[in-house]
Automatic annotation (TrEMBL):
Gene this chain is encoded by: truA
Keyword Protein biosynthesis belongs to the record: no
Database matches in PANTHER family: PSEUDOURIDYLATE SYNTHASE, TRNA PSEUDOURIDINE SYNTHASE-LIKE 1
Catalytic-site annotation from UniProt: 52
Species in which this protein is naturally found: Enterocloster hominis (ex Liu et al. 2021)
Subunit structure: Homodimer.
Role description: Formation of pseudouridine at positions 38, 39 and 40 in the anticodon stem and loop of transfer RNAs.
Record-linked InterPro entries: PsdUridine_synth_cat_dom_sf, PsdUridine_synth_TruA, PsdUridine_synth_TruA_a/b_dom, PsdUridine_synth_TruA_C, TruA/RsuA/RluB/E/F_N
Catalysis: reaction(s): uridine(38/39/40) in tRNA = pseudouridine(38/39/40) in tRNA
Family affiliation: Belongs to the tRNA pseudouridine synthase TruA family.
Protein known as: tRNA pseudouridine synthase A
Domain Pseudouridine synthase I TruA alpha/beta: 8-102, 144-246
CDD domains xref list: PseudoU_synth_EcTruA (cd02570)
Keyword terms: Isomerase, tRNA processing
Biological classification of the source: Bacteria, Bacillati, Bacillota, Clostridia, Lachnospirales
Residues bound to substrate: 110
Length: 343
C-alpha cells in the first residue's frame, strides 16, 4: 500500500463543488471513478479544500491510497488520459502513508476576479464576476488592509458554518486592476472559513462603489456579525490558486491585534516535546478561546507538554475548561495544559 498526493486543477463551472453530493456531479466523484477504473481497485480521494459549486482551482491537493505499481510521479500522465478536459492532475508523487492534506500547517492562496467595465465580455463570464459600477481600487486596497493579520472573521463567514473556531490569519491581501479591466483580489491565509473569500470580495466591492468608506471594513470585522458585511459574491469569480505546506516547523508562532498578543515558543519541541504559550496581553473575554486554540495548535505540532505563561489579569484557573483541556499549576508560576480526562 502507498499514498499518492496529487495537485489538481479544474474548471468548476459544470460541477457541484469538490465534495460528493447526492444531487449533482462533483470533482471528487469524477476523480474517484476515473482512478478506480484506471487502477482496477476502489479509490476514495481526500481533498485539502472542499471548494463550492462553480469555484475553480489551479492547485487543490488530494491524496489516495493504492496497491498500484505505477510510480507516483507517473500517475498524473496516466489518469489525465481518462479525465474530462475540465479536470487535470498537474503533479503526482508518493508521500508517507500518514500524510494528510488537511492535517498539515499550510498557507492557502485564493483569487477573486471582477470584470469591471460597462459591458460584459462573454468569454470571461465563467471566470470573473461582472460589475458595471466603477470600482475605486485604491479605496478597496485601503479597506482590505484592515483584514491583514490574525482576527476573528465571524463577520465574513456564512451562517450555518461548522467551524469550531473563527479566528484566522491573513498573511497578505492585495487588490489590483489589470489592463484587461479585471480587478483581482488575492488573499493568502492560514485557512479560510465557509464563503470567507466571497464575502470579503462582496464587502470590498461595496467599498469600491463608495457605499461604505474603507474604514468601515474595520467596523464590520469588530462587529463579528455576518449581517454587517457585504453580499456573498458569486462563485464563478473565485479560484483556489494553491497550497504551500510547511516544510519546517516554525520556532515561534505569534499573533497580535488590539484584543490579544501572544508568542507560542516551539524552540524546545524537537528536543523535549515541550512548547510554551506566552500570553503578553489578552482581554478577559478572549482568554478561553486563545488558550484553547493555541494549546490545540501546540499539540497538533507535536508537543507532549504545553506550559502557559500569562499575566494575572487574564484570570487563568484550574476550574475552567479550555476546549479539550484544563490547566494545572506548574513551577515558576506557570500553568500546564492537560486533557480533561486526566484532571
Amino acid at each position: 500500500m502507498k499514498r499518492i498526493k496529487m495537485t489538481v486543477a479544474y474548471d468548476g463551472t459544470g460541477y457541484c463543488g469538490w465534495q460528493l453530493q447526492p444531487n449533482g456531479v462533483t470533482i471528487e466523484e469524477i476523480l474517484n471513478g476515473t482512478l478506480s477504473e484506471l487502477l482496477k481497485e476502489p479509490v476514495c480521494v481526500i481533498g485539502a479544500s472542499r471548494t463550492d459549486s462553480g469555484v475553480h482551482a489551479l492547485g487543490n491537493v488530494a491524496v489516495f491510497d493504492t496497491e498500484s505499481r505505477i510510480p507516483g510521479e507517473k500517475l498524473c500522465y496516466a489518469v489525465n488520459q481518462k479525465l474530462p478536459e475540465d479536470i487535470r492532475v498537474l503533479e503526482s508523487e508518493e508521500v508517507p502513508l500518514d500524510w494528510h492534506p488537511r492535517k498539515q500547517n499550510s498557507v492557502k492562496t485564493y483569487e477573486y476576479k471582477i470584470l469591471n467595465c460597462r459591458i460584459s465580455v462573454p468569454t470571461r463570464r465563467l471566470y470573473a464576476y461582472f460589475c458595471y459600477y466603477s470600482l475605486d481600487v485604491e479605496k478597496m486596497r485601503q479597506g482590505a488592509a484592515y483584514l491583514l493579520g490574525e482576527h476573528d472573521f465571524s463577520s465574513f463567514c456564512s451562517s450555518g458554518h461548522q467551524a469550531e473556531e473563527t479566528v484566522r490569519t491573513l498573511y497578505d491581501i492585495s487588490v489590483d486592476r489589470g489592463t484587461d479591466d479585471i480587478i483581482t483580489i488575492r488573499l493568502k491565509g492560514s485557512g479560510f472559513l465557509y464563503n470567507m473569500v466571497r464575502i470579503i470580495a462582496g464587502t470590498l466591492m461595496k467599498v469600491g462603489m463608495g457605499v461604505w468608506p474603507p474604514e468601515h471594513v474595520k467596523e464590520i470585522l469588530e462587529a463579528r456579525d455576518r449581517k454587517e458585511a457585504g453580499e456573498t459574491a458569486p462563485a464563478r469569480g473565485l479560484t483556489m490558486v494553491g497550497i504551500e505546506y510547511e516544510k519546517e516547523l516554525a520556532l515561534t508562532v505569534t499573533g497580535e491585534n488590539e484584543h490579544w498578543s501572544y508568542i507560542l515558543d516551539q524552540a524546545e519541541l524537537e528536543t523535549s516535546k515541550t512548547s510554551v504559550l506566552k500570553i503578553l496581553f489578552c482581554e478577559p473575554q478572549e482568554v478561553i478561546r486563545l488558550v484553547r486554540r493555541m494549546v490545540h495548535q501546540a499539540y497538533w505540532n507535536g508537543a507532549e507538554t504545553v506550559f502557559i505563561e500569562a499575566p494575572e489579569a487574564c484570570g487563568l484557573n484550574g476550574a475552567e475548561t479550555y476546549g479539550f483541556y484544563r490547566l494545572v499549576q506548574a513551577e515558576n508560576g506557570r500553568w500546564r495544559a492537560v486533557e480533561k480526562r486526566l484532571v
